[in-house]
Write a structure and sequence with these properties.
This protein has 10 helices and 6 strands; from the N terminus they run αβαβαβαβααβααβαα. By secondary structure, the protein is of the alpha/beta class. It has one domain (20-226): Rossmann fold (3-Layer(aba) Sandwich), CATH 3.40.50. Strands 3-2-1-4-5-6 form a 6-stranded parallel beta sheet.
Length: 231
């Protein structure tokens, strides 16, 4: 998808003919800052899975990444700005309130304790799938949710390492209808029109005083400018 299309309104992208009852999607990340790559992919995946709610969950101390540049409160507010613009999204800041690393297993256990009958689709990227078996208690994670991997159309799964291929052999669902008949344990691939946008590039552009037009909503850029972030 071209970057010009990234400004397509969330209202237009969020239309769906039907939804799954008692099912939610979760997209976590540093959101430093949140951008159209996050937003558009989440909306398209929600439509594909027929979900009516996507939880955006900023993490505090990501175990596999460097510490974020913006403060937790600032990243939370940027996510909240996006949530206010579209009813599909809901902010969950529970991980920001922790003083320890944001382990997915802890979050999923909390969510399941409060929503025992809710099916959880946990959104990840291909890079996360490649190191998923290094995640804390990764086997237990698959007892609590389905994984939904965003991959470019035509991605060659034979290029994956042997560990990941074994993981898929045990858990991959060939389509999204399979996962509807069980509460957890499946890995699905969602083919989205992924945008070539990253938070790293946005931060670099801002530091170098280059344009970030079409990379993130104007309201996010206004917030960044207001608090002089990423300078």
């Amino acid at each position: 998808m071209s970057m010009d299309k990234s400004k397509q309104t969330l209202e237009q992208m969020g239309k769906s003919t039907s939804v799954q009852a008692s099912a939610i999607g979760i997209l976590g990340g540093t959101f430093d800052p949140i951008h159209y790559g996050h937003i558009n992919s989440a909306v398209q995946t929600a439509n594909w899975l027929q979900l009516s709610q996507i939880v955006l969950m900023p993490c505090h101390i990501p175990p596999h990444k460097n510490s974020p540049s913006a403060m937790a409160e600032q990243r939370s507010e940027m996510v909240n700005i996006v949530c206010k613009d579209h009813p599909l999204f809901t902010l969950d800041d529970r991980e920001l309130k922790r003083s320890t690393p944001s382990y997915t297993i802890d979050t999923l256990k909390e969510l399941k304790a409060n929503n025992e009958d809710t099916v959880i689709y946990f959104f990840i990227g291909m890079d996360s799938l490649l190191n998923f078996t290094t995640w804390h208690q990764w086997r237990e994670i698959l007892t609590l949710c389905h994984l939904v991997v965003s991959a470019r159309p035509g991605y060659d799964l034979t290029r994956l390492n042997q560990t990941t291929q074994k993981l898929l052999a045990d858990h991959q669902a060939i389509d999204n209808t399979v996962a509807r008949h069980c509460s957890s344990g499946k890995i699905l691939f969602s083919s989205n029109d992924l945008l070539d946008i990253s938070s790293t590039n946005i931060r670099r552009n801002i530091k170098e005083k280059k344009s970030c037009k079409n990379m993130t909503p104007k309201a996010i850029l206004d917030f960044i400018n207001k608090y002089q972030l990423y300078r």
